[in-house]
Write a structure and sequence with these properties.
Order of helices and strands: EEEHEEEEEEE
Shape: globular
Distance between the termini: 37 Å
Strand content: over 45%
Largest sheet: 6 strands, mixed
Radius of gyration: 13 Å
Number of helices: 1
Structural class: mainly beta
């Protein structure tokens, strides 16, 4: 089993929506806060949304009101609904536990491109 597998990325016009999904191994997911990170070209990876095991959420300021993170504890899955997408949201998106360490495994991520 791949420890982390993201899906749902693609090309979307500004103002559009995408829903990202991530399935995780139990060792990463169970009982841990999970988050969505993104890395834009030439920039460091940043945490944009997180959710605790009992559903408390937190968002990067630029994501508030546009992105919604959710988790399905029965399926070890985390989702990110992204609305009102902007060109500056273009990045590779990853899911992982929160916080991560230097030894953390990273999946392939999924590319999100917002462009007209």
């Amino acid at each position: 089993q791949v420890p982390l597998l993201e899906s749902g990325g693609g090309l979307v016009q500004p103002g559009g929506s995408l829903r990202l999904s991530c399935i995780s191994s139990g060792s990463i997911f169970d009982g841990n806060p999970m988050g969505w990170y993104r890395q834009a070209p030439g920039k460091q990876r940043e945490l944009i949304a997180s959710i605790t095991s009992d559903g408390y959420t937190n968002y990067l300021e630029s994501a508030k009101g546009r992105f919604t993170i959710a988790r399905d504890n029965a399926k070890n899955m985390v989702h990110l609904q992204m609305n009102s997408l902007k060109p500056e949201d273009t990045a590779v998106y990853y899911c992982n536990r929160v916080p991560v360490s230097n030894r953390s495994y990273w999946g392939q991520g999924c590319q999100v491109t917002v462009s007209s």
